[in-house]
Amino acid sequence: MHRWSIAACYTLEVAKVIVGVGGGIAAYKAALLVRELGRRGHTVKVVMTRAAQRFVGPVTFTGLTGEAPVVDLWDPSYAGEVHVELAAWADGLVVAPATANLMARAAHGIADDALTATLLCFDGPRVFAPAMHHRMWDHPATARNVATLAADGVRLAGPVSGPLASGESGMGRMAEPETIAEALEAALSDGRPADDLAGRHVLVSAGGTREALDPVRFLGNRSTGRMGYALAERAAARGARVTLVSAPTALAIPPGVDRVDVTSALEMKAAIDAARDGADAIVMAAAVADYRPSERADDKLKKTGGPLTVTMVRNPDILAELGAWRADSPRSGAGPVLVGFAVETRDLVAAARGKLERKRVDLVVANEADAAFGRATNRVTLVDATGEEALPELDKARVADRILDRVVALLRR
Ligand code: C5P
Question: Which domains does the chain have, with CATH numbers?
Answer without folding.
Answer: 2-189 (3.40.50.1950), 201-411 (3.40.50.10300)
